[in-house]
Write a structure and sequence with these properties.
It is built from five helices and nine strands. By secondary structure, it is α/β, with parallel strands linked by helices. Strands 6-7-8-3-9 form a five-stranded parallel sheet, sandwiched between helices. Strands 1, 2, 4 and 5 form a four-stranded antiparallel sheet that branches.
Amino acid sequence: MTPSPLLHMDVALLVRGGRPLLQNFSLQVSSGDSVHITGPNGVGKSSLLRAMVGLLPLQGPCVIRTPSVFFLPTERDILDGQTAKAYLSLWSRFETHVLKDGGAPDLASENREDFLPQKVFTQPIHRLSSGMQQRVRLSRLAQTRSQLWILDEPWQSLDHDASRILDDCIAHHLAWGGAVIWTSHDHRTFPFVSRTVDLSAFVAVAEKEDQWPF
């Protein structure tokens, strides 16, 4: 018997700020899938990922069959003066209790310290470089047990070493049976990609002038 997909969506129309972005888009993601969402700037990549986790309304169903989802947006979610330790402690309250039994294996401190040197934990995050701030945010991957990861530009601001750590972290998650949906402006080859979806083919185009009376 074929297992049910972790995510299935059929988007008749995706609108943001009164502007139609995408139409007639379908996606199914199963265990082990790594889906790279591509397309030109402004096509709706970030909006689609936000819609997947319920932060934007959709015309059409989006069904997620997993107890929790790890979502990393591009927007900054760090408070001024907050240390890396305080930031990760805050997020762990939401993420570590969700799947007490089952779920993804805990990558724990080994992977977290790969992302984030121990000396950084007590420093105010706003004083760190943009690359190190992104490392702090990505350290959350080491404490989540969500099977489905939705990552918006996770490689932004990372240097080569940090990018390699993230690559390894994603590969480990996929090998366990997790799934990842992600965007990136990095044009290098990603060895773990199982599917690439170009949103250019799904740009919303009105067939008549009054089709979308927003």
